[in-house]
Each structure stands twice: as structure tokens, then as C-alpha cells.
Amino acid sequence: MFLVLMGTVVIAGIVGYLSEKTGFTHNGYLPSIIICVGGAFLFYFARIMFGIGFGSPGMNAILSSIGALIIVPTHWRK
Q: Which of 22, 59, 25 is nearest to 44 (CA)?
């Protein structure tokens, strides 16, 4: 379970970085990574408590990170 948590953080960080690099968001690298990691943590714990998910833990991390970037409004967006 600990390795899944660490993998979730790493995948979320990569998604945050790539979202900035490709121009999907305009938050800045660090805010995008923080938003992605926060969303992935929330979904990880929801998966543990309620058993909901999209399949594999990696897919859960990717989809929850993208969802967090879309949902969280920031004042840096254009």
C-alpha cells in the first residue's frame, strides 16, 4: 500500500509537469504539481475508504490529477 501511495505522488507530479509543458494549464510548474498531487491524494484516500476507482492505481492517479487541474480554479488561468 505504501508503494502505491508513492507511485501516486510520482505520477501526479509528472502529470502536473506535463500539463504545464504542453500548455494545457498556465498556472506555473509548482502550482500545477501541487494541485495534481493534492487531487491524487484525495482520490487515493477515497479509494481506500469507499472502494471506488477507475481500475489500476496508475490510471486512478492520472485521471484524478487531470480532474483536479480542471476543477481547481486559479487566478493564473487565461
A: 59
